[in-house]
Amino acid sequence: MLSIENLSVTFKDRASGEDIRACDGISLNVEAGELVGLVGESGCGKSTLGRTIVGLERASAGRVLINGVDVLTLRGSRRRQARLQAQYIFQDPYTALTPSQTIGQAIDEALQIAGEHNARARMLRARSLMEEVGLPLDILERQPRELSGGQRQRVCIARSLVVEPKVLICDEPVSSLDVSIRAQIMNLFLKLRDEKGLAILFIAHDLAVVRQAASRVYVMYLGQIMEAGPSASVYSQPLHPYTQSLLSAVPDPDPRIERQRRRILLEGDVPSPARPPSGCRFRTRCPAAASICASEPPVMSIGEASAHCHFAGTVRLMPAA
Amino acid sequence: MSSSEALLDVSNLDVTLHTERATVRASRAVTYSVAAGRTLAIVGESGSGKTILNLAPLGLLPPGVTADITGEVRFDGKLVLGDGVNQIASHRGKDIGVIFQDPLSALNPARRIGSQIMEVAEQHLGMTARAASAHAAELLKMVGIPDPVARLSQYPHELSGGMRQRVVIAAAIAAEPKLLIADEPTTALDVTVQAQIISLLRQLQKRIGMAIVLISHDIGVVAGMADAIAVMYAGAIVEIGSADDVLVQPSHPYTRGLLASVPRLDTPLGAPFRGLPGLPPDLSRPLKGCAFEERCSVALEACGSARPPLQPVAGTHAAACFANVRAALAATR
Q1: Whole-angstrom distance, CA of residue B165 vs CA of residue B91
Q2: Are B283 and B236 in contact (CB under 8 A)?
Q3: For chains A and B, what is the number of CB pairs under 8 angstroms?
Q4: What percent of chain B has pLDDT over 70?
Q5: Which residue has the higher pLDDT, B101 or A306?
């Protein structure tokens, strides 16, 4: 349903004039009725990738296929139509809504833009959308500030469903919500995946949330995919040293486990995407880096689970104290 | 949990906030203590009062907000709040260091990192500029910032989020405080950086023996740092005890629900997410009974009309729940 091929996104840094390659040759795909995770730390390019898919950023190379059509090659109204099939859900549902509009007005406006000219049909549809995302009808009369964070995110999801999209790009959609509320929204995404057959690309830094929801996961670092595969194997047998260190950093809510816990602590910071390291991008922080890692870029290993590493699957980082 | 060796002893702290729009009972009868070299975590979700409770007595309130504070706070054996005394704020920066959630807003963007740390040392340790500069470089080294002398002349925006939070920590411990209040110290950070910062705070605590009050919503971070935990809901402590008591044998239905909501790396793949139904109550309206009653699956009739007090579960472990008390009574019969 959604297929990204060799996508690159380059920005020009205003201050230095340098080219910053936020995404560098990314390929990934999401089937209908599938929720796929895209994880990585801040600055790795995962949000840029999501924004590029829906046309909020411009790709410098590659293809974005939605339902088999490369939306980057389309122009004008055909492009807009194709683009509507992929909707974006933001992290902060408050800034995504107009403060002075009631929820009903916001949904109505979206329906008008989508081409529904009959006011009564719009009202009926707005009501059924509320039901679909689990909100009471009186929410339509209220303004965003009167709603809780969870309710606002439901409204944003309802609004994205107005155009009956095939693909949802969710960018940290539960990070700003309280833990006890997150479950309600996550279960709503799972319901939409199952009942509407939506293809959902779920961008997040919370590895445990992604593991539970996603059938497959992509791990990104400094503009590239480091590892990809079914959640079951990526989380239990990570092939890439970066994935191994990410997983080792996830804290456990059991203090007895935490006291025994040894972690792989990475040294230093993520390098600037304007000047990525030669060879493997992770090598400057990789405890297992060898000389080949500086001289040659690794190729993606082939398999159900695959990794962008010269030593994919043969390296197992040992946690320090 | 009050004891004579406590470095910080808070009892019956009530904070009522006044804004232009509303009056909010942010915390109610909160009592806790923490000893030197130990970490108490105050856990809660947004609006639970966990941050206001700790920051209001220090005079740290958002603009346009005033607070009525009653109760008693003893710090290092001295009464610093209550009985007409209000001196906590004068300890801030010296005996009490504070780390805020967002490292960028905690630093002055227009001033060099070095001068922001040196200021603390000059003001509270009476150091000369030269000694303070050496001290600042030493601190940056201690918090794991490479090339510390060069960093002194940099501005906050030149550093990554993780490095900035290290600078904030360096400034907070510059006067070697006895108490560090850390408000969501890793929330803005990535998980690998979070692991570095937690490990750093633990090492610093060992080295200078400070007590830490960790304010957090993140159960994983709390499990890795806390000796004791207080769980807050709607402005009150609903459960308190050792980290093992609260996280391994949670007693209050809210704590149990909160823990069940945390996805873990060993949750079955594809399992539905577990959370709590409903929303926390609006604290600008009066509450008759238990604040958690509406969301609680084991609520009794009494829960709607009276507020359950904190009652011992075992040892220092206590919870504020009528259903618990009934279950305990039934068990002893």
Answers
A1: 22
A2: no
A3: 135
A4: 96
A5: A306
Query: Rounded to an integer, what distance in angstroms lies between the CA atom of residue B144 and that of residue B328?
Result: 49
Subunit contact B191:A184, Cβ cutoff 8 A:
no
Contact across the interface for B192 and A266, Cβ inside 8 Å? yes
CB B162 within 8 A of CB B197: yes
- Residues B220, B300 contacting (CB under 8 angstroms): no
Query: For residue B174, which amino acid is it?
Result: A
Q: Is A3 helix (H, G, I), strand (E, B) or coil?
A: strand
Of B247, B258, B263, the CB nearest to A180: B258
A120 class by beta-carbon count within 10 Å (0-12 exposed, 13-18 middle, 19+ buried)? exposed
What pLDDT score does A185 carry? 92
| Phi, psi (deg, nearest 5) at residue B133 | -65, -45
- Give tens-digit pLDDT for A294-311: 999 998 877 788 999 999
Specify whether the CB–CB gap between A242 and A62 falls below 8 A.
no
Per CB-CB distance under 8 Å, the chain B contacts of A253 are 219-220, 222-223, 247, 259, 262, 264
Inspect the interface and report whether the beta carbons of A265 and B199 lie closer than 8 Å: yes
Q: Which two tokens stand for residue B128?
A: 């000369």
- Please compute the mean of the pLDDT values over residues B166-171 and round it to a whole number: 88
| Angle at CA of residue B255, ends B253 and B259, nearest 5° | 115
Q: Provide CB contacts within 8 A for A94, sequence distance 6+.
A: A144, A149, A152
Report DSSP letters for B258-270, one per residue: HHHHS--TTSPTT
Q: State the average pLDDT for chain B.
A: 87
